[in-house]
Structure formats: structure tokens, C-alpha cells
Amino acid sequence: MEIFNKPPLTYEKQVELLISRGLIVTDRKRAERHLANISYYRLSAYMLPYKKKENGIIIDTFKEGTTWDDIYDLYVFDRKLRLLVFDAIERLEVAIRTQIIYQLSHKYGSHWQDNAHIFIPPREVTLRDGRKITIDVYREIQSHIKEQLHSNRAEVFIQHYHNKYDTPENPPSWMSVEIMYFNHLSKICTGLKNRADINGIASYFALPPKTFCSWLHTMNYVRNICAHHSRLWNRDLNIVPEKLSFSKRLVWISNPDTAKRSKNYYFFCMINYMLQVANPTSQFKTKLKELLEEYKNVISLDSMGFPKGWEEEKMWKD
Residue 158: which pLDDT band, with cuts at 50, 70 and 90? Predict the structure, then answer.
């Protein structure tokens, strides 16, 4: 192990370091301005494709002809990609939230979220690192609701409920679920005791229950990536979604067995699939194709998991 002793560099020195490693910078002041607003460390992820390798290991020397614009354009592409994906996830989140509220309130009444009996009882699970934790979905959402009721007074509907009602303590599900985070929606779906409860919600999106819950988990993971402005381009997804083999109701890809589920392409297919229900007039696929075309000289579709001929898939055609 080594001791970290690298000193912080000024923007000018950062540019000089990049130039010394073979990067072509035609406008130093512009590069310094970018570094002042984005940071060297954040941009370093977009430098990797342009660096040389020795014995399969990436080194700090750039490939011949690499320019500052190459790196910056890749960063801009990823930013535009995140915004596009985040917008699509938002539309799906609203639809998923609506179906959870609608279906469960018609089965169990307005305050189903306060009914511990419809959730799986607390259980202890062992994590990969050996740690043991207790999963209690009911207690977790109750804790979140109460926290929001005391701190989130900006929401008009919360003020209205407290001013008019004192029983039950919590607002009805159509208010309570609206103040939950996306990860709570995923946990509710995996934490419902009766399989029939999740069947109806998953069926609305033309998915088997297990696949639906898996996709929600992955969607929440990618949503967090987008929300925290982290790199989405070329990322291997840590939470891999379950495979959907076929669909009788909606258009799906013809090669699900060969699609790499840890790559961007499969996730984009997931989004496009669910939008057929949540937002049939969505421009997601059109905008994605336009974005890929605009930056075709900057990105590698193969590294993002796009198979050859993907544009010929029925779900990606206009």
C-alpha cells in the first residue's frame, strides 16, 4: 500500500498535465473554464477510452490525435443521455405510483399503507459480506411517512389533511405514497405478502411479477445515477434486471437471450417497453436515436451493449 501525497493542482496546471500526457488542447482558457465548472476528477472517466494500454492496463498517456474536444463531447453526450433517461423514468415512476395506489386502495381501502398484515413480516437476511440485517418494509414506510408529515409542511395536501382530520394519523394512500421515494415503491412491490397484489400491478405493465420487481430495482438504481449526475454512458449496471423472454401484449426485442442485461442497451429497451403503456406517445426512442446519431463519431455503441442491426428491431422503429 502507498501513501497518497498528490497535491491539488490549479486549473492551469491541470491543463499542463494533460498536455504533457499527449492531449491536444488548442484553447487552454476554454479547457480551464470547463475544468472550473466540471472538475478534473469527473472528466477523468471520459478520458479512459482515449488512453493507451500497455499489457492490457490503461496508462496515463493519451492515444495519438486525442483532443480536449473528444473528451468534452463525450461528457456532453452522457449529460444529454442522463437527462433523456431521467425524464423517461419520471414518467414511468408516476405511472407505477398511480397503479400501486389505485389497485391496493381498491383492495384494502384508503389507508392500506397502514395495514401491516398485507406486508411480509420482518425477516432477517444475510448480506454478501456476512452482515445480517432485518428487512421490515411496513416499518420503513411508516417511518418515512411520519418523518415527511413532520418535516414536509410545504406540501399543501399535507397541511390540508392535518387542518381537517385527526384520525387516522396518516393521510390516505393517495397522499402518503406521493411523498415516498422511488425506492419505497420498489420495496412495497417486493414486500407485499399476497402474490395476487403484485400480479395486478405488474400485469398493467405487461410483465411477470418477478420481472416487474426486478426492473423496478434496476430502474431505481439508474434513477439515482442520473439524479447524482454520475456516468451513465458505458456503465456496467451493478443491479442487473431479470430477462424478459417474450411478450404477448407489447413489442419486445427479438433477441433477449443475447442482449447483455448489464449494459445500457437492455435498460433502454426496458424503458421503451414500459412506456408503451405509461406513455404511448413518448418520444423517448426517437430522441434516443437522434442523440446517438448526433454523437456517432464520439461514442461506441458496442461498448454500450447495442447489437448490430438493433435499429431494425420493431420496438425501435418509428
Answer: confident
